[in-house]
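In this supplementary section we document a worked example of the pipeline. Step one takes a protein sequence of length 344 as its only input; no multiple sequence alignment statistics are reported here. Step two produces a three-dimensional model, which step three serialises into structure tokens for compact storage. The input and output of this example are shown verbatim.
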Amino acid sequence: MRRLPFCPGLASALALLVCAAGTAGGARAGTQPPSAAMLRPHSAAAPLARELRLKATGPEVRELQIRLRHARYLATYDAHDKFDGRTRAAVENFQREHGLRPTGVVNQATWELLRQKSHEPTAAELSNTDVGPWFTGPRHAAFVMELQSRLKQAGSYRGPISGELDRATLDAIAAFRMKVGLPAAEVMDERTWARLLPLTRNPGYKQLFDAPPQGNADQQLDPRCTSGKVVCISKGQKKLSYVVDGQIRFTREARFSRPGWDSPEGEFRIWYMNRDTVSSIFGERTPMPYAIFYDGNVAIHFSDDFADNGYASGSHGCTQMRDYQAAKWLYEQVRVGDRVVVYP
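The serialised model returned by step three reads:
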């Protein structure tokens, strides 16, 4: 697995390889609940006005990109009218996985199959003003506290940093969206979050909380975890501990790879850290807050899906946490070069 993601706030020269599972979601005002979205019908067969290929332009290309996004072959939230290399690669992957010759050219056969896997684009999708899911679920108080702090810095919120998604916070989200040219909605989706990040700074853990998160479980440590500073991860116990000189500072539940994928074992060194990583390598955009990379594209990170669904699903190799506050705290304790030990 070696495909490039999109990572907001990261210079293009430092594009990362990442892995994730699940999507951020949650009910929100003014948008469809998940049950309604699942009932959205797929499109019926229809003729293709013209073949679409690299360097083609026009509204048909925009529709193509939206349909590829529906089918989870093009992980983007904004569509445009240019048939670029990324669009061609998505078409080739779609063709390959549906038994068609992977030419990267959209002909009638490709179009008919894609319509069966996608929906009629809405006006909001075509204009890139559709409201997506929450970047991170608003049920996580620590995320809401960060959001309130950033909205306050942006001049859109004047209330307390409470962690409660109250009326003042929802109004501030809508006001900020309008300020940056997005439709008024009470949702901090990825488009809005991406605009908020460069205008504000992330509040430190100690600015939001008076004490470290309390440990809530015990973990039997591997002998390699008894010296120095180390993140100790047990796949068999489904736990993650932060350990200093053999003393466990805190422990949390952890989730690993789904069937067909593997979470690597061994002793590693943290090589990169990014607070706002978004994985786009599996056909959809999945936030990975507080990502700590320790083995190529494998990272420790917070997972909304783990928080919502527990062990019913899994990652593509990463170690996932479901406590946002604990993920933020752990991120601030470690540094590039620190050890990570993963054992059975």
